[in-house]
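Instructor's aside before we start: the two examples that follow are unrelated to each other. I chose them only because their records fit on one page, so don't look for a connection. First example below.
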Amino acid sequence: MRMPFCMIMLAALLAYQSAAGARDIFVSNLKGDDRAAGHQATASQDLRGPTHSIGRALRLAAQGDRIVIENTGEPYRESISLVGSANSGYSFQRFVVEGNGAVLDGSAAVPPDAWENDRGPVFRFAPPHLGHQQLFLDGRPLPRVVADTWADRPPALEPLEWCLYDGHIYFCVEPQKLPEDYPIFYAHHRTGITLFHVARATIADLTVQGFQLDGVHAHNSAQDVVLQRCTCRGNGRSGVAVGGASRIDLTDCLIGNNGDAQLLSLPWSETHLRNSQLLGNTAAGWVDRGGQVVLEGNLIRGGLKEHLPGEP
């Protein structure tokens, strides 16, 4: 049965009015408060100021809103999810997460008393999550040596190298030093940004790093989602993983220093790359496990060692 014209117009009018009321929700991990409403960028006693966490702002959001993250110079140490219509846009107005160059970081400091000596300059500790990991010094991934899981011992390590073996992270210190002499972090939170049943959303100018699995994971039915000018680096498995009937656009993005893949495509997904870099420094630029990847408008298959914009 066809919908009467007047009902179509009424539905369109209601959608327009909802979009016209779309809000900016402000976030600051220095001056924000998760009891606040996020209505303004400056803190206030009436709790109209910014939220402290991005996750709280996303829970306050409605369709077509914009999350405005303050780049305070301090990482946002949390794992966030965009879920359902409340974190989606309209056909004429997108839902936006504006990062302003901020960093979403999933790492945590290794407790000094967690280390035990293995032999000589090599120490080890057992992280709570295994399978994929990263180790960081001064915010940068340390060089990893891949261990043979069938070997009787972990591989030999040079100073500042590490490996994952038999449920432990092994780390080699420099002469006359101990692990507690270094500000060492490991990948603690599992995934940086999870996308689940969202549509017409843009995430811009955000660095996502230090997560145990993926920086960004389009888990299921994420449609028309754009990552724009984002950097995804130093994550345990991949910078970006796309699967579950999702369609993602990577525009002007930089993806590198991830553990198993910079971009991981999974069955039933579609990923478009536009002027984005997939570095082949720590893993293949694109690992193809299904789905489709469209590079600068051309469908490609089989994975990529790396891709730099302007290459043929």
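Example two begins here.
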Amino acid sequence: MISRALLFLTLIFLLLSPSGFEATAQDYQISLITCDPGDELYSTFGHSAIRVLDKTSGTDLVYNYGTFDFNTPFFYVKFSRRTLDYQLALTTFEQFLYEYNYFKRSVREQVLDLSPKQTREILQFLRINYQPENRKYRYDFFFDNCATRIRDMMQSVLDNSLEWKEPADADQKSFRQLIDEYVYPLPWSDLGIDLALGAVIDREAREHEKLFLPDYLEAAFARAEVVGDGPRRPLVKETHVIYDFPDREVAFSILNPYLILWLVSIVVGIVTFLGFKRKKLYTSVDIVLFGALGILGIVIVYLWFFTEHSQTKMNWNLLWAFPLHLSVAFMSARRLNPIWMKRYLLFALIAADLGLIFWLTGIQSFHPAILPLLLATILRSNFLYYHVDKWMLTKN
């Protein structure tokens, strides 16, 4: 185990010695560390880091681009608006592994076959990146994260000496399809992500762009080759399994969004049918339905127009979950029927129909669980449009 004093001296050496790696680059081993996904949403997609082992002294460090400071003022506001900076952290390999052993997440290592010059340049790159003025960066889930930082570092340092050897027969997948591969064990999180992210993530991801996911980065490293610096050789010299835990079991829960939202839709359908037969509106269902859709619409508008997240733009879930649906809930609760009510219900009906068309034509992929909610919105908007004048008890 590395003592605190040794670690402190090592960090001082790394930060203050601009040429400290040059004479002993051959004594350093650089590896890509890939960690399997965890059970929590923040760990669903896995993790990547760089290990630097000094084979002479035994100093064993990990450069980790996936950290942030919980003590940042207005942490949650900045996190939601994408104004929270992530940073490069440095820790011992032993400390890094503690979390993954505790949560039973598998970890693998790919030792890189680099020349002394390439090793020295990567170490210099990491040293410069770790300086206080450089270590922070504006995190972007798809384009600037713990995996893409490592991808870009390798491309920057090795340049034309690195061939990624992209597969010619790779599956064509959109960004949404790529993240769906990981969130299926968390159905409510899957639904929330699809509701929050817009049509911009439904474009096809190029092979280079897929490397925002640690598993895909690991596979790319396994294919890559080093050329023009000695004999052509694989980028990865050795692969080690550090932890190998059983795969996570996906447990089916009856409280999943598919079942819950179909039940909601069925209840709305039954209430609407009874209301038609009995000539009653049963406004309680409109208070709940349009109130929930309005609140969801406010969240979508906030993420689209008032944050710096690039992936929440052009979110056409707004067509059926619209903030002004709260006005329908409010008027239903007060049993009021202002003159604009029918016009707004017609707008809500047309917009929801348009949302369905956007889905069917591939303009944006909606989560399958929202289909019953979308149908319930269309049904209820149509019902109210034709009957609100006749059966509302109080008119304005």
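Residues 269 and 376 are 7 Å apart (CA to CA).
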